[in-house]
Each structure stands twice: as structure tokens, then as C-alpha cells.
Amino acid sequence: SHAAIKIQPMRQFFSSGHTNNWAVLVCTSRFWFNYRHVANTLSVYRSVKRLGIPDSHIVLMLADDMACNHRNPKPATVFSHKNMELNVYGDDVEVDYRGYEVTVENFLRVLTGRLPPSTPRSKRLLSDDRSNILIYLTGHGGNGFLKFQDSEEISNVELADAFEQMWQKRRYNELLFIIDTCQGASMYERFYSPNLMALASSQVGEDSLSHQPDLAIGVHLMDRYTFYLLEFLEDIHPSSKANMNDLFKVCPKSQCVSTPGHRTDLFLRDPGSALITDFFGSVRKVEITMETINLTEPIHFVNEERQKETYSYVDQLPVSEIIHQKPKQKDWHPPDGFILGLWTLILLVFFKTYGMKHLKHIF
Amino acid sequence: MMPVPSSVPQPKDDFQEELVIRPLHSGDIYASFQFRTLWETDFMRGNKVSHYRLFPKSLGQVISKFSVRELHISFTQGYWRTMQWGQPFLPSPPGAELWVWFQDSVTDVDGTWKELTNVLSGIFCASLNFIDSTNTVQPSASFKPLGIGNVTDHRFLRYATLPREIVCTENLTPWKKLLPCGSKAGLAVLLKSEKLFHSSFHSQAVHIRPVCQDWQCKTTSWELRQTLNVVFDLHTPGQGKLEWSLFKMFSRTLTEACPLASSSKIYIDITDDPQGEQFEVSPATHLLSQAMVLGDRRTFSVYDLTQQITFGTVRSLNLLIRWKSRDMLRPLLHAERYVAGYGLQTGEIHTLMYNNHPYRSFPVLLLDSVPWYLRLYIHTLTVTSKGKDNKPSYIHYQPSKDRVRPHLLEMLVQLPPNSVTEVTVQFERALLKWTEYTPDPNHGFYVGSSVISSLVPSIVAMDTNSTREQPLFSSFFPCKEESSYFMRVYTEPLLVNLPTPDFSMPYNVICLTCTVVAVGYGSLYNLLTRSFQIEEPSPGLAKRIANIIRKMRGVPPL
Question: Which CA distances in Å does B452 have to A275, B141, B369, B380, B473?
Fold first, then answer.
């Protein structure tokens, strides 16, 4: 009876072509008055987690800590709506890169996968050629660049090259790039790799504006584009059929003041056939099997004979021992180049002055 | 499948949880959670361990892969105010602190240390990967192993602090996931981040060490202790009354003990008032227990969560504590540290250590680790007590190397009774390369807390008998003699400003220079190459028409 599964729904199931989802969410701004950028990133994090992507597949980078900042009147919270309606920080957040770790270099290394070997798994983007990746950037930007932490910038050319590296190394199937900064559309102008779709909150020459301030917290809580994006995503559930054309309609000029832009010419499918959950949700492919598997017998380890020596705790502050401590053994290092050169010079001068005949006495 | 009877007993593991609540003199309340997992197993023998039950797998793999003998890591937000709150059960410095003893089979300790910090930064969502050779030291006497063992070769010890490290929910989340019951049952349901971080002091730590299994101490088990200390401020919830309840502190009540725990208890410190006049605890309990902790005999009311009657008919436990006034136990050892001087070139670090015992003197070991960019002048080091010079009986100093190693200074000083000992050393600030500045350099640079380890004389005879079942909070530091107990005190971290260049200047300089060059060169070029010609101005309209008519007449123009 299981073999009679209809083929029709299966084709629909596999039509998108990806098998796993990843998200890289980056907030690039530091300092308390940039609270809204952290709130932006955390609202996208919250939506993406709610729609199914697990923490192990999300790389969250926050350049500063707003929740436990000493200026925050409600610690361990980051709000997106005024009157403290929605705490996007939550109780279950895992930030992978925080504080000074959010740099252009680390961001590009995460994207291209060229990380030092001791980097833990939670800090890596372990995507393959069947992964759909969502990349969200927010912060302060300009025409052709995005500022990281007030001290460095990433240009649109670098970003386009990073995506090309990812394409050549088969690190993504399809990639959705969303950016919420001033003049955000300039960041996707230079893309040239296939299967990229990009959205930005404002065109070149326009500023992205912030939404509303909260008088109790004292700063602006969210940017307009991401605020309306969050409202749109709150209506999406994991089995929703909403597609990318609905996403392009988020935040028209009347609400956003700036004109959001999008770019789909590099995307091979029709944007109308790409579902929102293709990027914001998570695909779980389950294969049901009816075979039985025999478990092997448990391995018994014979307990080796107990040692006869008695252990004891060490004295924490043995005063007499410390006073009479011998100097610790230093690891022996071979002599420095400088010392070797100096000795060579001394020997040369000696033999020059006193003649080479002494040499035969030595050797 | 039929279960196969095994002749060998499976490794035994055991989980205990406890909460100690101590009302403080200033009206604040101190809550200390301890979760202990004991496991009789051997991580060191290859891949023998494959089935984890109560012990978290991520930490077990860390121990076996990096041949760790002892691991102590703590994340703290806030500074412990010893003079107002007394002594904590488990001290910790602000920021992150990590110290590890490796097994003597490790050949490259520095490489293993670097890999270990990276792995831990992934497990605890903290930026521990910033620990490198510039902030790691190798103390020679201060940090002896807290577990059992005979090896004390300090080449296998590494200590590092990150005073700038922020602690927030993202560190608490993976910490809670290491517990056997998670945060779903037992005492861990009280750990809600919105209340825990809205406090004066918050510290969470993980301690792994081998301990004796029984009094004969012929076999060892691995002990994992997860501790969380928090001090709630009297004035935070709004009302200033000396009344606290579990709901007011944690916004939760307890409904059950963790089913995997062999013991789950709450202790409330009622030492000053066992009759119940000054102090009121409800629901009342008749279980009392006495313990020797921090050199004093304290009395506790005990609530056993494994007994169903503790929860009463409402099936939930919300302890209410009310008191009128409270004596403070004056701490015997207290330390402060500050930077003196003016300007951005030189300064002086002052460390003050107070001995408040009326007639006994005791030794303390001071460990100072100063980053390389504060160049200490050790010839200016002075140690004075009561105005007179106090020569330390042991000094270990390792000078710093620029961009490689920090300063390490360890001194064993005998503190005279009822006195203040002042340690001063002058330093000079270095100018960093412009890429070494953090993105917010005007905030300043942190210097980690000093560690003061000491054997403090105790008022009552300490319990050296390790066979009796002791509550967790009194059995952390091993006790070898009756007349004194071991204690660690941390000073404040320092925040110093280094001479910071103006980072907008390169842009300004380029604009100014280009303007000057353009104006100067442009003018010079024009002067040298311009030639002047005389040109008639063009005549007005009337004159032009007149010229046309004249040309037609054949007469010369005007």
C-alpha cells in the first residue's frame, strides 16, 4: 500500500530544488543609539526560527549588545513595537558572532567558508549546493558600501565577488539577499552570479528611515522597512503558499517614505513560483522506510583492577612550599638568529686578527 | 529484543540540585543555584565513553579530546560588593574567566589551549576566541587544582580573563541546555533571563574536576558543577520592603523536582534568628540543618523538593521571606584596586588589601596580570602595611613582551592584623598601531581583576571530614585543616584610556592636502603658461548695424 503513493504531490514537494535552508543575519552597528539595527536583525531571526530553521543553521552576528546594555531599562529584552509589545530577543537566542567579532573579514570568511580549522560548528556556514540561503544585512550604508562598526566598510564589489566565490564552490542553490540601509539598492547593483535575488529598503540617493521611538527606552526601535517586513512575516506560517511577488509589495512608498527595490534578473526561476518559505522556512525531507535494523549487542567492558594508590586533594595555598619553590623549568629554545650572528661576528674578527693558523688547533 | 544481563555494573551517575537563599544586610537577597552531576567513568581511555546519560555530551567530548584535567569557566555581570554583601559561596571576576589544568600527557599545551578556547566559544556563545597569548598567563602558585591528583607542574595550567565580555541570554541558553532536565523541571524553571539579568550581580559558571568517590578515595569520579549566583536589588521591583518571595525574585514558582535528581533542596539562611522573631519564612518547615561555610556555622531551613508534601495542597511552592533587620558578617578579607595619576602617559596602579581580623595575621597570594600596553616599572613596586614596608616572602614576575605576552606578577604577602596593605606600581601607556584599536577606542581598555587567594582563619572549627554528606555550597573548596579555610577575592577590573589618535584625520588630511596642492599648482601653472593677447571688446548693437551699413557703402568701420 505504501508503494501506491501518488506521484503528483511528490513532484510539487521537490520542485524547489533545495534540501536545506540556512540564514546569515548580520547587524553591523555599534552603540546604543543604533538599537534599531539590532532589533531589525532579531525580528528576522525570530521569524526565521518560527518558520522552522533551527539555530544550528542560523549564523547570527550582532555587533553590539543592546539587551544587557546598561542603558536598557528592561534588561534581557529588545523590543520591536513601542509600548513594549513584542520582545524579539526572547528566551532562547543564540548569537554566534558578537561584539568585536563582527568584522568584514569574518563576514566574508563565513560566506566563503574559509575559516580557521578550530572554528566551532555553530560559527560556520556549512551549506552545500542544495542549500537555500537567506542573507540579511542592516546598518548604516551609503552608495556602494556598508559600514561595519564605525571603523571599516564592505563595498558592493567585494560582496558580489564573495557571492561569485560561493557560486563557484557550489555553496548555494539559491540565495535571497535583503538589505535595510540607506541607499541599499547600490549594494546589489554589482551582482553577477546566477540564482541571486535581492531586495533593498531604498534606492540610490534615498535614506531608509526609522519607524517610531519608544519614550521609555529612548531610542528608535525599528527601521520602517523591516518593521513592515516583520508584520508581513508574522502572517506567514510554515505551510503558507505566499510567494516572492508578495514580498516585493512589502512597504510601498506611502509607508516607507523611501522606495524599496528588488532585483530578479539573475534568478533563474520565476519569482512568482518561489515561495516565501523557500528562504524563510526550513525544508525537512523525511524518507519513511519499512526495513528492520538489528541492533548489535551492547559491548561489555571488563573493569580493570582498581589501583591501590590513594588519591588526595591538593593543598590550595601551601605557604612553605611556595616560599621554597624552585624556579620552574623553562622550555629550551634554540638560540636566536641574533645571538648566532653575534657569535659568528666575534669568531670572524678573532680569526682575522690573530690569523688563520689558530684554526687548525680548533678543528 | 531481550535485555542481556550484564555482569559488569554500568557507570553510575548522580545528579543533585540545590538552591541557597541568603538575605543580605542591605536588604538585597542572594540566591545561589548549584547543579552537580557525578559520573564514575574514565574519559582518558580512548573512545570508551559513547553513552551519555546525565553528563552533557558536549562537555564530555571536550574533556576527552583536549585531555583536560580540570576546567573552570565563569561568566559574570556586575561586581561583588564584599563590604555590603559579605563573601560569596563561589567568587568570580567581572567578565569571563577561564582556567584549565591539562593532563600531563599533553605535548603542546599552547596549541591545545587555543583550540579549547575556540570550542568553548562555540558551546557558550561567547567571544572566548579572543583569548590568545596576549591575555593568557601561567600562574606559578595561585591556582592549585581543586580536584584530586598529584601533578602540580604549573606548565600544564593556563589562566585567562576577558573583563570586557558581556553576559546575556545567549550565554544562559546553552548553559541551561547542559542540565539533565534542561529548564523544564526542577530548580532550573526559575532561571528566566528577564529577571536574572535585572539584578545587581549575575554569575554563571561551569566547574569540571575529578573528585573522590568515597572516604577511602581509591576511585575517582568526574564532577560537573554548574553554579549560578545572583543578587537581586531591593529597589528594583518597586517597593522597598524587606520582603522577598520566589515569585518576586524569579516570576515563577516551583511545582516539582527534577525527576532525574537524587536530591533537590532549598536552603534558607536563618542563622541570626532561629526562633523566628526577626525573621519569617513561609510556608514553615521543621527541617533544619547546620553547615560550616566560609568560616562560620550557619543554620538553614531546608525544603526537600523530592517530598510531595513540600508543595502542599496547591501543588506549587512559593517561599516567602520577611525580615526586619539583619546583622552583617564583617568580611575578614577585602580588596580594592584603582588607577591613580593624570594624563595619558603615566599612571599608578594601587591595590589595597584589608585584613579585618582583630589579632590574627594570614598570608595572601596576589596575582596580577596586566596587558602589555601598560608598561609596568617593577622597580617602583612598593608594598606597605600600616605605613611600614612589608617585604613579600615570594615574588614571581614575568615581564611582558609587546604583542606576545602580558605581565604576570605573583606575590605572597603576610597581612598584619587589622590593617590595610597597599601595593603600588607605576606604569607607562603605550601607543598602539592603528589597526590594534577597537572600533570604540575612547571607551578605554580593560585590565583584568587581580586574584587574591588566601587561607583565612575561621571563627569555628571547619569540617575536614569529607565523608559526611555535605550540602553542595559548603563542599566546593577542599578543606585540609580546621583552623582556616581557603578563599579567593577578586578586585575590580580597571578601565584605562590609552592615547587615542583621531581616526577621522586621514580623510581630513587628504582633503586639505589635495586642496592646497590644487590651488598652489594650478596658480603656478597658469602664471607660467598663460600668454596675454589684446582683444577688442565686441561693439554694441547700434554700432554693429552702423558698421554693416558702412561696409556696404565702402567706408572704413568705426
Answer: 60, 11, 12, 21, 20
DSSP codes of every residue in B489-508: EE-PPEEEPPP---TTHHHH
Rg from Cα positions in chain A:
30
Q: Quick check: B78 and B200 in contact, CB under 8 A?
A: yes
SS3 content of chain A, % helix, strand, coil (to 5): 35, 15, 50
Of the candidates B118, B144, B198, the beta carbon closest to that of A118 is on B118
- Judge contact between B367 and B140, C-beta under 8 A: no
For chain A, positions 66-95, list CB contacts with chain B under 8 A: 67-68, 74-77, 89-95
What pLDDT was estimated at residue B275? 62
Q: What SS3 state is found at B185?
A: coil
Q: How far is B524 from chain A (nearest CA, A)?
A: 36
A290-349 residues touching B, CB cutoff 8 A: 295, 297-298, 300-303, 306-319, 322-323, 325, 328-329, 331
Indicate if the alpha-carbon torsion angle A251, A253, A257, A258 is positive or negative.
positive
What is the pTM assigned to this prediction?
A: 0.86
Cβ atoms of residues A164 and A112 within 8 Å: no
pLDDT per position as a tens digit, B482-506? 888 899 999 999 999 999 988 888 8
B101-115 burial: b if 16+ Cβ within 10 Å, else e: bbbeebeebeebbbb
DSSP run (H or E) holding A167: helix A156-168
Q: Is A306 close to B503, i.e. CB distance below 8 A? A: no
Residue A289 is given by DSSP the state -
Decide if A120 and B197 are in contact by the 8 Å CB cutoff: no
Residues 6+ apart with CB under 8 A from B171: B75, B124, B125, B126, B204
The burial of A74, by beta-carbon neighbours within 10 Å (0-12 exposed, 13-18 middle, 19 or more buried), is given as middle
Q: What is the CA radius of gyration of chain B?
A: 34
For chain B, the straight-line distance linking the first and the last C-alpha, in angstroms and rounded, comes to 126
Which cell goes with B193?
533571563
Residue written as grid cell 549560578: B228
Q: Does B251 touch chain A (CB under 8 A)?
A: no
> With contact defined as beta carbons under 8 Å apart, do B350 and B340 qualify?
yes
B479 to each of A316, A323, B99, B219, B333, how far by Cα in Å? 9, 21, 21, 19, 18
Question: Is the CB of residue B168 less than 8 Å away from at least one CB of chain A?
Answer: yes
Q: Which residues of chain A have pLDDT under 70?
A: 1-16, 285, 298-308, 326-332, 358-360, 362-363
Size of interface A-B (CB pairs under 8 A): 163
- Return the closest-CA partner of residue B31 out of B228, B204, B198, B224: B228
pLDDT digit string, tens, across residues B202-239: 999 999 999 887 777 777 889 999 999 999 987 766 66
pLDDT digits (tens, 9 = 90+) for B278-313: 778 888 887 888 888 887 888 888 999 888 888 878
CB atoms within 10 A of CB A205: 11
Sheet holding A140-142, edge to edge: A140-142, A145-148, A152-155
Q: Three-state DSSP class for A115?
A: coil
B152 touches chain A (CB under 8 A): yes
Would you state the pLDDT for residue B271? 80
* Beta-bridge mates of residue B244: B321
Residue B390 touches chain A, beta carbons under 8 Å: no
Residue B297 and residue B460 in contact, taking contact as beta carbons nearer than 8 Å: yes
Chain B residue with the nearest C-alpha to that of A313:
B148
Query: What is the C-alpha to C-alpha distance for residues B281 and B245, in angstroms, rounded to an integer?
Result: 9
Cβ burial of A257 (10 Å; 0-12, 13-18, 19+) is middle
**Dihedral angle sign, alpha carbons of residues B521, B524, B526, B528:** negative
Q: Does B11 touch chain A (CB under 8 A)?
A: no
What interface predicted TM-score (ipTM) does this complex get? Answer: 0.86
